[in-house]
Amino acid sequence: MTRTASPDDKIAALPAGELKRGVLGSGGLVFMVVAAAAPLTVMAGVAPLGLMIGGIGAPVAYLAAGAVLIIFAVAFTRMTRYVSGGGAFYAYIAKGLGRGWGLAAALLALVSYNTLQIGVYGLFAAQTRATLADLFGVNVPWPVIALIALGLVLVIAWLGIDVGAKVLGVLLILESGILVVMAIGVFTHGGASGVDGASFTAAAAFNPGMGGVLAFAFAAFMGFESTALYRREARDPERTIPRATYFAVGFMAVFYCVILWSVVIGFGSDKVVGAASENVAGLFFAATETYVGPWAATLMRLLVISSVYASQIAFHNAITRYTHALSQDGVLPAWIGEVHPRFGSPYRASALQTVFAVIVIGGFALAGADPITGLLLWVNTPGVVGIVVLQALTAVACVVYFLRRNKSASTPVALTAAVVSTVLLAAATYVLISNVGLLTNAPTSVNVVLVGIVPVTLLVGGVLAVWLRNRRPETYARVGEGPAVQEVAA
Questions:
Q1: Among residues 39, 222, 256, 401, which one has the fewest Cβ atoms lying within 10 Å of its Cβ?
Q2: What is the DSSP code (8-state) at residue 20?
Q3: pLDDT value at residue 483
Q4: C-alpha distances in angstroms, 381 versus 114, 211, 354, 376?
Q5: What is the pLDDT of residues 64-90, one digit of tens each?
Q6: Measured at the alpha carbon of residue 231, what is the angle toward residues 343 and 221, in degrees to the nearest 5?
Q7: What is the mean pLDDT of the chain?
Q8: What pLDDT is recorded for position 5?
Q9: Rg of the chain over all Cα atoms, to the nearest angstrom
Q10: What is the structure's pLDDT at 440?
Q11: Regarding predicted confidence, which is higher, 158 or 416?
């Protein structure tokens, strides 16, 4: 009697070092991207600053950032079918600009995602500590909370990407749902003085402070490349990756815009900037309490914590996929990229990243640093800048690939999108660096060091590439290529 193969049979049948295949559809990929961005945290924690700096036109900044990334996605996803490596931007840049740039990009991606993920543990710890104190009168040191969160992230990552996608799906629905409830409450009651479109007028959209808001807006799309990172685990990646990319970016752009606009309406377009200045940390909670009820404001506080936790899972998975790709390409030791024999997860990369996070968090804790002004803002900022730089480099790589490497892969629309997105992302990088002080609230000398980590990392990656080309040419030749795809018998 013939037995139907079970999922565990297929995992066991995978070649050594291979991740689970075909376990993520478009929905799972979307959860990875949007959860990494942490919509509730972006809105409740950061968007009020945008209102303070850019005024009531702040919602437009999120639409503008989303539009730039959609244009980029046209070129990015067109190139997807020709990239076999699993390192996302790393593999794309290697294909377009060469292995040296690809390896430099890989190192920058590792540094950027690690700083994003580890820095956000400071936010998670601070939010959780404040919530426990407010609701239950319990005072827990922030390093303890951060270390507990580290363990919870490791457990989900260890169990495999399919489990992570399900957890992220639930958490994402909850955090998005509470924002939708708030917006419905505002619009249903007509806001403070009626629903108006003042946020979308030319005067509001071109307010001098909008350049600073754009810095926050682009940071709100962190994790954008995650669709391509899970290429080997996606079902029909040539279809699911483009679909998930367009949907995720489009959803976030519209969602951020509408939710922030609802808060403008809730306080009144003539009063919301003042309200944000007086209560930047509690603006969204105040709107929720006013238009829905105290219970909803309390729930929102709890869901902010789960929102940050979801982003930690997503960023952790991104880091381990980069590590796994570099291991399979021979740049990192093979043992780091080994996958769990049962769960099909890169569990050694997960353990290594967790140890690194413990060291960084422990260092900040021993130094007596504040989890927000120290761990979050200082550690997080190089990651935000690094990811936007990677997006710009990938746009350039698409142009070069279409014009020189593989002209048959190009279409007029894809090439135009690649050129336009190169210009726009270069401009976005300039705007972000020019306004980086808004992200760090630190002296210029500190900002120079934080931003300087990005070019220094690229330089170190370039030096490593030269060394590999001269000393280990066989490894250098594999950069960005990934292993040969092997079919698994059902």
A1: 39
A2: P
A3: 57
A4: 11, 17, 20, 8
A5: 999 999 999 899 888 887 876 555 788
A6: 105
A7: 86
A8: 43
A9: 22
A10: 82
A11: 416
Q: Are 28 and 245 in contact (CB under 8 A)?
A: no
Residues in the chain: 490
Distance CA 334, CA 339 (A): 11
Distance (Å, rounded) from C-alpha 366 to C-alpha 142? 12
Q: Which two tokens stand for residue 205?
A: 């959209």
- Cβ-contact 131, 305 below 8 angstroms: yes
> Dihedral (C-alpha) 227, 229, 234, 239: value to the nearest 10 degrees?
50
Q: What percent of the chain has pLDDT over 70?
A: 92
Longest dimension (CA), the chain: 75
pLDDT (0 to 100) of residue 474: 87
Cα(12)–Cα(23) distance, rounded to whole angstroms?
Answer: 15
* Residues near 209 by beta carbon (within 8 Å), at least 6 away in sequence: 53, 54, 55
Q: Say yes or no to pLDDT of 432 above 60.
A: yes
What's the CA dihedral at 462, 463, 465, 471 to 10 degrees?
170
Determine contact, residues 122/142, Cβ cutoff 8 Å: yes
**Exposure pattern of 175-202 as b/e (b: 16+ CB <10 Å)?**
bbebbebbbebbbeeebbeeebebbeee
User: Which residues fall within 8 angstroms of residue 198, CB to CB, at 6 or more apart?
Assistant: 56, 204, 264, 269
- CB of 385 closer than 8 Å to CB of 433: yes
Q: Phi and psi (nearest 5°) for 23? A: -100, -5
Q: For residue 475, with 0-12 CB atoms within 10 Å meaning exposed, 13-18 middle and 19 or more buried, which class applies?
A: middle
Residues 462 and 445: their CA atoms lie apart, in Å, by: 26
Q: Find the distance separating the first CA and the last CA of the chain, reported in whole Å.
A: 16
Instruction: List pLDDT tens digits, range 278-303.
Output: 988 889 999 999 999 999 999 998 99
Q: 107-136, pLDDT tens digit by residue?
A: 998 999 899 889 889 888 988 998 888 888
Strand-pair partners of 349: none
Amino acid at 219: A
Residues with Cβ < 8 Å from 184, sequence gap 6 or more?
A: none
Helix or strand or coil: residue 301? helix
Cα separation of 380 and 440, whole Å? Answer: 9
Q: How confident is the model at residue 4 (pLDDT cuts 50, 70, 90)?
A: very low
Q: How far apart are CA 428 and CA 248, in angstroms?
A: 20
Cβ neighbours for 165, distance < 8 A, ≥ 6 positions apart: 23, 24, 27, 28, 31, 32
Give dist(CA 211, CA 225) in Å, integer. Answer: 24
